[in-house]
Amino acid sequence: MELRRPRGTQDILPKDALKWNYIEGLFKKVCKNFSYGEMRTPAFEYTELFKRGVGDTTDIVQKEMFTFDTKSNESITLKPEGTAPVVRSFIENKVYADVQPTKIFYITPCFRYERPQAGRLRAFHQFGIEVFGSDSPAIDAEVIALAMDFFDRLGLTDKLELRINSVGNINSRKNYNSILKDFLSKDLEKLCKTCQERYEKNPMRILDCKIESCNQITKNAPLMLNHLDEESRTHFESLKENLDSLNIKYTVDPLIVRGLDYYTKTAFEIVSKDIGSQSTVCGGGRYDGLINELGGPDISGVGFGLGIERLLLTLESLNLSPWQKDGLDVFIATLGEKASLEATKILHILRKNDISCDKDYLERSIKAQFKLANKRNSRFTIVIGENEIIENKVILKDMKNSTQTEIGIQNIVDEVIRLSSAK
Ligand code: ATP
Ligand code: MG
Q: Where is this gene product found (predicted)?
């Protein structure tokens, strides 16, 4: 059998790793500016965590989890998302006993059994942040601002749309659920099977159904946004005020639902206009009941998950490549065996001095070596032949300026450093 990677997975090759390293570095930098600390949790958890932490009525739990039993009959699930594990760890390690709020970021692989297509994989990656312990709408705005700052640095500000909504606090939701159920009751039979279940467990999620016939029924449904109680409305108004003061543009989209019982108040999505139907690059919101639901104290949370593959697709579709082209500092071209040996010594010294460098190992002609240096996008090329060894000096070609100088072998490190820092 031909060995292939599993459906819905991707390999990240060295040429792609450049992009990944760049955006991961940038995300970490922005998180540091906003004072978020990193958390790393295992690639798998007990299945129960996601059943309770993501919710029984969600697509993730109903259809998408990679779940298996261990040899000792424990049910394990590969992480389908980042929030529940971070909350579990926050509670288990009693991080809530430290100074609050707790501000966390993570970079994690996620696994979901979905139908693979552009922007939808079975193994993908997310950036995420979570803040625990603050009810303030200013922190919801900060969470959004962090995402927008990150996108801004990638040149995406005008290419993405921020949509916000409020799904209300628990009280508003109870009230709204019965209004929505009244509205839907006459068409209950016509809803899809999943939505019929949602009708009992969590009717608001029906608004999020992707099936057209359900959309027809919910088209004129009453909206949560029009049934917010005083507390929820004030929170939403203040969020908007905070975003305005930060000059962050948004549209209010009353159909955004993050439908679990413990999702509350703020819900938002950041959507790309350029990558077709899988267009949500970042989704987040407030979940004031989740920490308590998972056995922790009654404190609130807010955060987002950002799909890294979808972000890369967005950048690609816009021809944006903010990362530096990968390249070498120095390539050494050699003529003859002695020169090759000398080059090996020089490479070693350069590498110890943090100068990235390489040489030919396939006995190419000198012409082919120059070609290779170009292909490897080398900043400098050093040429060594028999004469150079006798005279203890080499030719250093500056590939950017097309100039060349003769330098003593013992001066190579200093010269390369000097020339790379000069314009
Ligand atoms: P969608 O509506 O596209 O299924 P979702 O609501 O399931 O998204 P979240 O659980 O909020 O997504 O995950 C946050 C982000 O992770 C998404 O906005 C998206 O960018 C990314 N994401 C989700 N599922 C996948 C997947 N199967 N492949 C690649 N990226 C994904
Ligand atoms: Mg999904």
A: Cytoplasm
**Which residues are CB-contacts of 101 (< 8 A; sequence separation ≥ 6)?**
131, 132, 133, 134, 139
Query: Of ligand 1's atoms, which has the minimum distance to the CA of residue 59?
Result: 7
List all residues whose CB is within 6 A of at least one atom of ligand 1.
Answer: 81, 112, 114, 119-121, 124, 126, 278, 280-283, 305, 307, 309-310
For residue 38, list its beta bridge partners: 105
| Å from CA of 205 to ligand 1 middle | 16
Please answer whether residues 293 and 90 qualify as being in contact, where contact means their C-beta atoms are separated by less than 8 angstroms.
no
Residues 31, 147: Cα–Cα separation, whole Å? 9
Q: Match 């709020």 to its residue by tokens.
A: 101
Positive/negative CA dihedral, 173, 227, 178, 201 = negative
- Please name which ligand lies nearest the alpha carbon of 117: 1
Quote helix, strand, coil % in the chain, to nearest 5. Answer: 45, 20, 35
Ligand 1, residue 311: give the atom nearest the CA: 20
pLDDT tens-digit series, residues 179-216: 999 999 999 999 999 899 889 888 988 988 888 999 99
Question: Distance between CA 225 and CA 237 in Å, rounded?
Answer: 11
Percent of the chain topping pLDDT 90:
87
List, for residues 306-318, the tens digit of each pLDDT value: 999 999 999 999 9
- The confidence band for 282, taking pLDDT boundaries of 50, 70 and 90, is very high
Q: Are strands 380-384 and 357-359 parallel, antiparallel or unpaired?
A: unpaired
Q: What's the CA gap between 148 and 59, in Å, rounded?
A: 27
Note whether 336 and 305 are same-domain residues: no
Residue range(s) defining the domain that contains residue 266: 14-169+229-317
| Residue of 130, 278, 279, 302 with the most ligand 1 atoms within 8 Å of its CB, for mutation | 278
Residue 344 located in a structural domain: yes
Our count of domains for the chain comes to 2
CATH number at residue 413: 3.40.50.800
